[in-house]
Amino acid sequence: MARRYDCSDATDRIAGLREAASAVRRGELVVLPTDTVYGIGADAFNTEAVGDLLEAKGRGRNMPSPVLVGSPNTLHGLVTDFSEQAWELVDAFWPGALTLVARHQPSLQWDLGDTRGTVAVRMPLHPVAIELLTETGPMAVSSANLTGHPSPQDCDAAQEMLGDSVAIYLDGGPTPAAVPSSIVDVTGKVPVLLRAGAISAEQLREVVPDLEVGN
């Protein structure tokens, strides 16, 4: 039976974050608020839990899960060949609605889906998400919706779709925007905007002027 915690209540928030972190460590799924939409998350290094996440969404391995982190410093252990331009984007837009696709460390024991040696990573600008990620370490997090349905902006919508496939729901109230994060590929010599989202190409070019826009 799923449990839900109201993060606007200080006592409930402390209990919810504690229970959510424990659930993640046990390999269970949690729903958490972010600065874009609600996400469904699992321990990024627990292959079975990540598989459960994809199954809960009705999503195939061809759509691997992004990873959320609680600090830019976490990147040092996750990615390799991370360019100076990539770090400039992190400095300018993290925490925030920018996802970076980078090459992951080949030594990492994880299976996020068919990633071809890359990982899509982001640090969300939401206090509940950051507190949880600080406790758990990197989490595989995807929008908390069934594939083909709208991404949820509140906990009710997420729970209606995902039900008891999730152990803990952290209710942080409505999310600020339904606009997804912008996605930039930093695996090549020049950053490439793969998906325009909350951060525009113009804003990104103020930091990396040679940004290209993908097809």
Short description:
It is built from seven helices and twelve strands.
What does this structure look like?
This protein has 215 residues and is an alpha/beta fold. Helix content is 30%, strand content 22%. It has seven helices and twelve strands. Strands 1, 2, 3, 4, 5, 6, 7, 8, 9, 10, 11 and 12 form a twelve-stranded mixed sheet that branches. Helix 1 runs parallel beside helix 5. The radius of gyration is 16 Å and the shape is globular. It starts with a strand and ends with a strand. 45% of the residues are buried. The model has no long low-confidence stretch (mean pLDDT 94).
Large-scale geometry: globular
What would you report as the Rg, rounded to the nearest angstrom? 16 Å
- Report strand %: 15-25%
pLDDT average, as an integer? 94
Alpha-carbon distance between the two ends: 44 Å
Secondary structure category: alpha/beta
**What is the chain-wise order of helices and strands?**
EHEEHEHEHEEHEHEEEHE
Number of distinct beta strands? 12
* DSSP helical segment count: 7
> How would a crystallographer describe the biggest sheet?
12 strands, mixed
Share of helix, binned: 25-40%
Low-confidence stretches: none
